[in-house]
Specification:
Length: about 375
């Protein structure tokens, strides 16, 4: 583990996700002590830092005030008030140490559209080259129910796919991933490292509390996804003194998710992390073996046994076994209704069934990502 930790010192670009309970006081405004110390660390570090922050809804809720934020419209109202205030404090904290911050607000539509995704990537990289600190949050005021990130842990994983950092850090109000919730179980033990393929979800609790939508469960999901595309992840207590520098020095703080050795090309990272699946294609065991073979094949109609959900050509879908286990995702060449018509058929029958000439593959291998790729 020491070698795995020491590798973190080589990181040159880092994405840092900051939770609401770290950046904000439980019954008040922002945690100014944390912001000051965080800005100082950024100024002292040589690494390029990208920040994904929560806290806008918390600030807005206190300012209005709202008794609850249990609907999309109330979260939007709170975010509209809180986001400018949140950014003001970040900008002022960074300026104190001679750094410039830049606001970027994102929606899932920005991430799922390939051209927007590329433009966002170009913008973030341009800011980093100029020494600016990008500060990213969900654009809550225009996101709608069903097309929101839901919490910024998932957003941080998507941003990592865009930025392609050497390290992703989640700063939480917990010391890392425990074998049980330490607030409820005094016997809970810190999990110092999670190896590729290890089942960390068994330890993750669910809720994020009144002030957040995340919680350890969502952090572990995002961490597992980032590690799966080759990015090391650390979940640590953001209230620790000099936490960023200590992690980058290789100190054993928090939980380290060791990355897969197989890094993805940019397009496959986008497919794996930036798009929400619109449906599901169920395949037989022969198709599963063909797709997961070391040489890999495309998904043909003959191996499909069922279709779930409504999707159009070009959408992302899950590929699952007959017992419901997801093992791949891919961009489809046909709509869900067309796939239903041609499922189980041979490729030579596609044009006759659909009445027009189409692709031989339902999903081409180049547009597919296997779990663990």
């Amino acid at each position: 583990m020491m070698n795995e930790r020491s590798e973190l010192s080589k990181a040159r670009r880092v994405v840092v996700k900051i939770g609401t309970r770290v950046v904000a006081e439980p019954e008040g405004g922002l945690n100014h002590h944390f912001l000051d110390q965080f800005a100082r660390q950024i100024a002292e570090l040589e690494q390029q830092i990208v920040v994904v922050t929560s806290g806008a809804v918390h600030l807005g809720r206190r300012a209005l005030p709202l008794r609850r934020v249990d609907s999309v419209s109330r979260r939007q109202a709170a975010a509209a008030v809180g986001q400018p205030e949140l950014m003001r404090h970040y900008i002022e904290a960074l300026a104190k140490y001679g750094r410039i911050g830049a606001q970027i607000l994102l929606t899932t539509e920005d991430m799922s559209d390939r051209s927007r995704y590329v433009r966002i990537s170009n913008t973030v990289h341009a800011l980093l080259e100029e020494g600016v600190v990008p500060i990213i949050n969900e654009n809550d005021t225009v996101s709608v129910e069903g097309v929101t990130f839901g919490e910024n842990d998932k957003l941080a994983g998507m941003v990592a796919a865009i930025v392609r950092p050497d390290l992703l850090i989640f700063l939480s109000d917990q010391a890392g991933l425990f074998t049980a919730d330490p607030r409820d179980d005094p016997e809970a033990q810190l999990v110092p490292v999670v190896q590729p393929g290890e089942d960390a979800m068994q330890y993750a609790t669910t809720g994020g509390g009144d002030e957040s939508l995340g919680g350890m469960y969502k952090k572990v999901l995002a961490a597992r996804g980032a590690a799966g595309v080759g990015i090391p992840v650390v979940i640590a207590d953001g209230r620790e003194q000099d936490v960023l520098q200590r992690i980058l020095d290789g100190e054993e703080l928090g939980t380290l998710f060791v990355p897969s050795e197989r890094a993805m090309r940019a397009r496959k990272q986008w497919i794996a992390t930036a798009i929400e699946p619109a449906g599901e294609i169920v395949v037989d065991d022969g198709a599963r073996r063909a797709l997961t073979d070391k040489d890999g094949s495309s998904l043909l109609p003959v191996g499909i046994v069922a279709v779930e959900g409504r999707f159009e050509a070009g959408d992302l879908v899950r590929i699952v076994t007959e017992d419901g286990q997801e093992f791949a995702r891919g961009l489809v060449n046909y709509s869900g209704e067309e796939v239903k018509q041609i499922q189980g058929a041979h490729t030579r029958q596609i044009s006759k069934i659909l009445g027009h000439v189409g692709d031989e593959e339902v999903i081409h291998r180049d547009n597919m990502v296997l779990s663990g790729d």
